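A reminder before we start the practical. When you read a complex entry, don't treat the lines as separate problems. The point of joint prediction is that each chain is placed relative to the others, so the output describes one connected object in space. Small molecules and nucleic acid strands, if listed, are placed in the same frame. In the example below there are two entries. Take a minute to note the order of the lines before looking further.
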Amino acid sequence: MTRKILIVEDDAAAAAYLAKGLVEAGFAVETARDGRDGLFLASEGIFDAMVVDRMLPGLDGLAMIAATRAAGIRAPALVLSALGTVDDRVEGLHAGADDYLVKPFSFAELLARIEALLRREERAAAAEPVARLTVGDLEIDLLGRTVTRQGRTIPLGTREFNLLEYLARNAGQVVTRTMMIEKIWNYHFDPGSNVVDVHMSRLRRKIEEGFATPILHTVRGAGYKLSPEA
Amino acid sequence: MRLSITARLALLAIGLALVSSLALAGFVWQATHDDAIGALRRDTTEQSDALVAVWQSGGAPALERAIAAAQEGDDTLVAEIVDGAGVRIAGVGPDRLSVKPTPGNMPFRIETLGDQGDWAKREAGFVVRQIGTRWLVSGRMLDDWERAQRTIESALVVAVLLSVLLGIIGGLVLTRYVSRRLDHIAGAVDAVAAGDLGRRVPASGGDAFDRLGGRINQMLNRIDGLMGELRVVTDSIAHDLRSPIARLRARAETAVTATEPAQRDAALAGLIAETDLVTRMLGVLLEISRTEAVTRDALSPVDPATLIEEIADLYAPVAEDAGLEFQVVTGPGLAAMPLHRELLSQAIANLIDNAMRHAGTGGAITLSLTAEEGALCIAVADRGPGIAEADRAEALRRFGRLDSARSQPGAGLGLALADAVARLHGGHLQLGDNAPGLIATLVLPR
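Here is the predicted structure of the whole assembly.
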């Protein structure tokens, strides 16, 4: 089933760029030009996720999301905004947005975040607590907090374990550096380009050294992907 | 408006002079008046006592002789002997007294003696005393005393007029002086408002006007400083953004003209990297401006040790990979306090980032958390070349990069953001000498 995304963006060029990219990524897309139209479309309840610009004519993006929530629509919402300070982001997340992306952003970042939001919803829908994650020959025991690959135990620090768990929950999909900074370290600022890379290369050394096949892949211009296949 | 102030000051001065001179004149008049009456009463009583004594020793003939002798050459003296109906029997005085003598003595009084002729026109101070079956009236006509009083009164009027005149002159001089001093201050302020930012209020001494002028000068200095900073920032933004935008344009052109796909891809990737750099610079700049406007309500209780641990966890591997020793030193017993976790973490991240950039190879970075007297100190120390004392203020400024050519791709905003975050917490960023190296300390009051 094709997943449907609602884009609410008043900048026509930006909306067209987003729509084109999302269609190419296999989504069905509808576009609204202001908050009122967006709310009207969202109320139909047919969308799997919403991408909403924060500053919209008529009805502000955050207000629109609040209204859809009041109407019982649970589709996750990603807010796009030119307001990029730490406090703006935190405020946006508190106001009901599920994720917050500051303009300008790379499309890869947006796509990775939408995928992550959708998977989170699917997991929530499945509603059964997962005790074990498996990616190829890598197994993560969430209760015992142990990691084994090909039956061999790999000792990991707390932070490394959290990183690997996050990657495994999004296995096969790209996870961007900023997503990791936000989810694992809970920071909303950009700590510099290679900070995450250093942590990833350490993690990679632990889970790949001594094994024949790579499992943690770098996706150029986007981020990282945990997957048995390249 | 200024005219009315001048008029009000002049009126105030005149009013004060008038009130004070009136009060003074009133007091003098009252005092001399009372004195004169007192003297008259004493004189009259003494004379009356003397005459009564003469009567007691010599009888009526001796008294009449004494009266005649006393009146010799003293035409204001009144002394007569009257019967029970007040009719004159002997001496000088009205033929019939205006008051009827009563048995015994009548105390000193001031009124007209008779009701006919000259006696009815002028007042006299007198006493009446019984001598046998008659009465002795003795006293003094008030001509002299009145004349003296009138002289004093007219002198007082002159004094009041003079003091009013002096008040007017004083008021005018005072307002002249005040408005001249105010004009100096207003002139400087007007000149600044008109665009001459260098103008200052001339200072001459240490009076209230000079203090006001000094305050205004301080304010103008601050405004001047802020304007200068704003100008530097604007220039710097223009300059610092110009280079990446120029590179952006160059890469875009390369991509457009590239014939090989690999070449084009490389150019486009570079274009994206340059865009990210510009975005980052703008983001940090915005963060600094916003930090300066953030209220302290945005702070929530955070355990400083945990905050340090978390940021160290993020950066320790990065420093180690860069060949640097990374140490974390945390003092004991630090309670949670109101902090902005995100911004403070970012500030520390900037300090660590800065330290790593300048530490050189094989150096060491120490992140320490200590509790000083009334303040929490978060310090990042490196073993690099440090910053000379004279350059430290410049290092804290936005875009204040110590190489004037601005060639290195450091954003030049890291320390400025750290300083802004420290000020958000009511503290400051302190740059010190780590001998060798730089020690940057966020001093946050508790």
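Discuss with your neighbour: The mean pLDDT of chain B is 81. What might explain this?
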